[in-house]
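Pinned message: reference record for Thiosulfate reductase / polysulfide reductase chain A
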Amino acid sequence: MKLTRREFLRRGGALAGMWTGLSQLGEPVLAFLRTRGARWPWYRPDEVRITYNYCDMCMWRCGMLVYTVNGRVVKVEGNPKDPKSRGRLCGRGQAAVAHLYDPDRLRKPLIRTGERGTWSFREASWEEALDRAAEALARLRDQYGPESVAWFAHTTGDFWFGDYLPLAFGSPNVGKPATGLCLTPREVAAQITFGRGIGGHEPVDWENTRYIVLIGNHIGENAHNTVMQDFARALAQGAKLVVVDPRYSTAAMKAHRWLPIKPGTDTALLLAWMNVLITEGLYDREYIEKYTVGFERLAEHIRPFTPEWAAPITEIPAEVIREVAREMAAHRPQVVIPPGRHVVWYGNDTQRMRALFILNVLLGNVGRRGGLYLPRAPALDPYPHPPFPVEVAAGGCGAAAVGIRIPDTPGHPPRADGVGSKFATGPVVIQELIEPMITGQPYPIRGLVVYGVNLFHSIPNVPRTIEALKRLEFVLAIDVLPQEHLAWADIVLPEATFLERYDELWVASHRIPYIALREPAVEPLPDTRPGWWIARELGLRLGLADYFQWSSIEEYLNTRLMSVGLSLDRLREAGGVFTWPGKPYLEDYGEGETPFPTPSGKIEIYSEALARAGFDPLPVYEPVEEPPPGYFRLLYGRHPLHTFGKTQNNPWLAEVYPENEVWVNDEMAAALGLKNGDRVLLENQDGVRSGPVRVRATPRIRKDAVYLVHGFGHRGSRLSRAEGRGASDNLLITRYRLDPISGGAGMRVNFVRLIREV
Ligand SMILES: Nc1nc2c(c(=O)[nH]1)N[C@H]1C(S)=C(S)[C@@H](COP(=O)(O)OP(=O)(O)OC[C@H]3O[C@@H](n4cnc5c(=O)[nH]c(N)nc54)[C@H](O)[C@@H]3O)O[C@H]1N2
Ligand SMILES: Nc1nc2c(c(=O)[nH]1)N[C@H]1C(S)=C(S)[C@@H](COP(=O)(O)OP(=O)(O)OC[C@H]3O[C@@H](n4cnc5c(=O)[nH]c(N)nc54)[C@H](O)[C@@H]3O)O[C@H]1N2
Ligand code: SF4
Ligand SMILES: [Mo]
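Predicted structure (tokens):
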């Protein structure tokens, strides 16, 4: 029965009357009732439990308080003690509850019964599934060597399958999508320039900044909680904002200038800005002298790159370029060009990131208030274990890259991703591990363990991935949802969600170095298991008991915590988070102590390392391929209420934004006879077609590009709310340009045309 508002209020009134009546019974009556086992108050506050967690609805890891009543999670909240959430969560974080109780979750280990690529499985016991998985992995290791198995891992539980078990197993082929498909060029550029990576939390000193220039970097749609809080506060404090984006993004709506740049030409703009700062003498001379090397060569190098040179390339008027450079200089050092995060754009991305960093340096803002601060991480010891047979930088959001060198360990199997041949340096890049599965070059990869990576939505060139999956001898998938790639696994293991498990500590590199705890709020769904447990069980079966000497996860965590004088109990007493003082500014470093551990001990504007490796030692602009007639460049980005391809099925989030749209310039749409809401198919330069997607005809995008929110267009999954909704950008990204320095996969080199659905 539905209550009308009036009826509801009337009954509420009656209840309130009863309430007063009851309370007038007085304490003696209540005391008597208690002796009879009655509870008062009736809502039983003793059964509300709060546990600590860090959010896994995206990779940002906001600290979370989880409220459980009678064994059910009823709500999650930001942990006020946590530097990343400060008591708040974003919409996706709130929807963690719906993630936990998604009825489509995987519930049983599955063993393949039919052909790969079909959803033909039988349910199995953990005992059987683990035995068989370990047997298959051991056979590959014995027959072809441990390097014949690749391990792909992501989500915030990826430590066990991305950093620990694979290295104990002895494979250097450990890939995370947050490397070559996300931030590797940025980390490599930072390593070359500053001798240190940027890390998982972009170190922008929002509190003190007065002038912000966003290049791409669509904050507001890219919805990292703390960044949005900080960004909003900076604007409220009067900071000026310039947004460089071919699309009028949410951030652009807040900007005092929107520069609708021609896609792929940002390096030209950055060079022109440097040109103005240097030729007009507006840069920070003292800073450059004290902290950098190579400025003279830069001054020489940028001479031809005037605003007049950049204007026809970028399609931004020369006067505007000049004015923005002067405005930046007028605010220095409280001016910042944030490094962005998803920086694999056009394949020359390390050079673009170098240009962006050097521009910041000319403004004297690195390690200064209002610019880029210097983050630090707490130093916890690992749980003692024998040395790993391989050493490799698997990378990931928090990991720094490795400078210009080929990071193979002598005497151990080299990486198969092409570092040193196809590209120069950096952590293992995931997408280049697919090729050896097909071609056997430089040596064959025959097995794949995929933990929390969305094979068909995150890795470009899906036909190639399918080809690889057909050839592999063994595929093990560990996930929480029936994503489409699981149909290619031989064994599927259902993990418990982050709200149901302990996990490795989150050790954050941040302005305030800190650690955060993840502990279970409720028992896992029957027949799902935590990642640490799965890794350990596999490890024991693979003869790796020496690496798993702990008897319980609590013992593991306590031992690590002990190295900094903490324990699980003390971490809980502290509120699930423990912080240390940071050293964010240059003034926090003493004489003779440099925050820039480059070979010169200074910021390297001119890079000897790049020169030696045969690359341009100073950033250069390289034109990108133009779309053929009738085609648009395919751009993509985020929606504030979705994460990649993993939240489209979330019961709450699916209700708010159930499918994506293709943004098309309104004049171009009209010329094609299309209007808002029409359904079209997108066909790329290789003839690959997306499913039908609605047109969003809008003046908010340039005429030469279209735009999709990433992560939609699930096909062949068992996701009841996501299946068949919208179009997949990744399906249309059949090619990419490899960044020759870092191995990042520039994915904005695909073109699509619109075909009206008939
Ligand atoms: N809600 C939500 N937030 C997220 C995520 C999520 O899944 N969901 N994922 C997180 C992760 S891991 C990452 S890496 C970040 C990614 O977020 P960002 O680092 O902000 O990613 P970008 O690729 O810089 O941003 C996409 C923007 O670049 C613009 N763009 C496209 N081509 C060009 C160009 O040639 N030049 C310029 N100047 N702009 C261009 C697009 O129009 C779009 O507005 O988001 C993070 N935040
Ligand atoms: N085309 C295209 N490709 C992209 C991007 C893009 O914008 N467009 N963005 C790139 C970027 S910036 C990044 S960082 C990567 C992200 O790449 P991914 O991390 O691969 O992206 P998701 O779609 O979030 O995939 C997460 C997978 O983990 C599963 N999962 C969720 N929770 C758990 C859990 O607790 N345990 C386990 N075992 N599994 C879990 C999900 O069901 C899903 O299969 O993608 C990159 N690739
Ligand atoms: S930004 Fe949102 S989804 Fe990401 S960790 Fe924080 S609350 Fe969770
Ligand atoms: Mo990313």
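Pinned by admin. Summary line: The chain has four domains: 5-100, 110-177+400-499+527-575, 204-373, 632-756.
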